[in-house]
């Protein structure tokens, strides 16, 4: 029998490696005085506008980010940004994964119970928007219609408050751009969204029109976990006061939303497929490398974890096979997105420590993909004819030597195609990790679309990139199968 102690030690070693990666990150206590982790939304222009690298390192990254840059310089602190959906930002801030969030966050009484807010730097209102040729002229025309709302926003709150009054149905979205596209394509009849965002989008090519005045105007500010970052609040407020007094605040706002705004829409050439690739080649290259890096490291970790589970599953007795079956059942049964949120946003609340985004992504892939690998490793060993076991044992080989000298080589031949298929699946599954802010190909596509609304062309480019990778791996799989036959 395979040494139980070795198996258990292998699992402990794997978990320890993940823990080291998690806790090797600088702690908040070490950095809090000078460096903050700021969560930002990826598709909420002109509040934030990502640069060609998928971050906020250039110039003119939206008025919220420009305000933050100016304040950070004046108050002598630094920051790192984490990009994820608005709903994920709320949860990550509450879990302590980030120090503050910035995404056109409205200050409401409900949020004040869970968040501390900086002084407001903008007042936002929600407006109704429809397709250009729509017959809807006001909220009164919405009876029986379907209206898109972006989760957690002022527009969503206002829409929910008047839904019964105007008798419309609601469809929820995590990002503005898919919601606007659904209005344009006729999937929904209208949307209620933040006014400045909608008007900015329309100016840059979104084929919608505003059909109401602004409603439910609320102040916009940075939010932090209740009681967690008073120093950031103090520094931000001090810097904002200086920014307004110096006139730099008004310069920033005028650049984006003033009557003489200097923001320019992409040219017709930039909107062609070739133009989109040229303009975003660095962004796409970084996303591809990130996707491959996470996929390769993830599949290696998942293979180790899966082989351990598979070997445990064929042991004599009930304990190790029982543990193996339970872990396979749990991690195959959980949707990957739920697992990703649990690891990145749920666990920090329990551990009292941040989990780096990259670590969360790898652990998610390791557990989810590893469970599938464990199942087919177990099946591969069990598929070897039982007579092989009996022959090996009759020759005097121990259970362990029979497994590794006789059964494993035959089982591996059965498993190899499944391993290659699982690698292909892992590459595709990395798209799920965009929900927690991993800047892979899918997240990158959403960000590029937010700048130009060329959804069909951008997703076609992303699809072709995926197909090239998958085709190359499929050919590799065929070659390996032929050589092993």
Short description:
This protein has helices at 4-23, 28-31, 63-75, 86-95, 109-112, 154-166, 176-185, 195-203, 230-246, 248-257, 273-279, 281-313, 319-333, 336-351, 357-383, 386-394, 399-429, 441-452, 455-484, and strands at residues 35-40, 78-83, 100-102, 115-117, 122-131, 146-150, 169-173, 190-194, 208-210, 215-220, 223-225. The chain has 485 residues and is an alpha/beta fold.
Architecture (CATH level 2) name of the largest domain: Orthogonal Bundle
What oligomeric state do the depicted chains represent?
single chain
Shape: elongated
Could you tell me the mean pLDDT? Answer: 83
Assess the beta-strand content as a share of residues: 5-15%
- The CATH homologous superfamily of the largest domain is named MetI-like
Low-confidence stretches: 19-33
> Class by helix and strand content?
alpha/beta
At the fold tier of CATH, the topology name of the largest domain is MetI-like fold
Main sheet record: 6 strands, mixed
How many H/I helices? 19
Question: H/E element string?
Answer: HHEHEHEHEEEHEHEHEEEHHHHHHHHHHH
Number of structural domains: 3
CATH classification class of the largest domain? Mainly Alpha
Number of strands: 11
Helix content: 55-70%
Question: How far apart are the first and last residues' alpha carbons, in Å?
Answer: 30 Å
* Integer-rounded radius of gyration: 26 Å
């Amino acid at each position: 029998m395979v040494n139980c102690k070795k198996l258990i030690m292998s699992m402990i070693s794997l978990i320890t490696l993940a823990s080291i990666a998690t806790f090797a990150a600088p702690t908040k206590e070490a950095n809090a005085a000078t460096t903050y982790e700021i969560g930002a939304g990826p598709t909420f222009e002109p509040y934030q506008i990502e640069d060609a690298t998928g971050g906020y390192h250039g110039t003119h990254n939206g008025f919220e980010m420009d305000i933050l840059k100016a304040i950070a310089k004046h108050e002598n602190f630094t920051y790192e940004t984490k990009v994820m959906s608005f709903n994920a930002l709320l949860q990550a801030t509450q879990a302590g994964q980030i120090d503050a969030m910035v995404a056109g966050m409205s200050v409401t009484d409900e949020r004040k119970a869970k968040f501390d807010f900086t002084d407001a730097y903008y007042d936002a209102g929600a407006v109704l928007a429809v397709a250009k040729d729509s017959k809807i002229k006001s909220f009164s025309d919405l009876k029986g219609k379907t209206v898109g709302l972006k989760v957690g926003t002022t527009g969503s709150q206002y829409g929910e408050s008047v839904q019964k009054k105007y008798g419309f149905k609601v469809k929820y979205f995590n990002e503005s751009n898919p919601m606007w596209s659904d209005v344009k394509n006729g999937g929904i009849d209208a949307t209620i969204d933040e006014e400045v965002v909608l008007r900015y989008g329309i100016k840059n090519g979104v084929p919608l029109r505003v059909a109401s005045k602004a409603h439910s105007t609320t102040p916009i500010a940075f939010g932090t976990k209740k009681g967690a970052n008073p120093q950031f609040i103090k520094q931000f407020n001090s810097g904002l006061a200086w920014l307004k007094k110096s006139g730099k605040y008004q310069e920033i706002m005028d650049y984006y939303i003033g009557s003489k705004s200097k923001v320019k829409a992409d040219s017709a050439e930039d909107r062609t497929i070739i133009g989109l690739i040229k303009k975003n080649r660095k962004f796409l290259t970084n996303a591809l490398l990130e996707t491959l890096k996470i996929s390769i490291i993830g599949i290696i970790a998942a293979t180790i974890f899966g082989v351990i589970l598979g070997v445990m599953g064929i042991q004599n007795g009930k304990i190790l096979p029982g543990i193996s079956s339970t872990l396979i059942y749990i991690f195959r049964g959980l949707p990957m997105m739920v697992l990703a949120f649990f690891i990145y946003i749920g666990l920090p609340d329990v551990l009292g420590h941040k989990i780096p985004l990259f670590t969360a992504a790898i652990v998610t892939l390791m557990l989810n993909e590893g469970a599938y690998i464990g199942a087919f490793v177990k099946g591969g060993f069990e598929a070897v004819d039982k007579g092989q076991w009996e022959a090996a044992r009759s020759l005097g080989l121990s259970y362990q030597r029979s497994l590794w000298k006789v059964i494993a080589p035959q089982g591996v031949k059965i498993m190899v195609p499944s391993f290659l298929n699982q690698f292909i699946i892992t590459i595709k599954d990395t798209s799920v990790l965009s929900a927690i802010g991993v800047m892979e190909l899918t997240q990158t596509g959403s960000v590029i679309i937010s700048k130009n609304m060329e959804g069909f062309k951008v997703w076609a480019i992303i699809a072709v990139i995926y197909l090239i990778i998958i085709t190359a791996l499929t050919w590799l799989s065929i070659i390996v199968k032929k050589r092993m036959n």
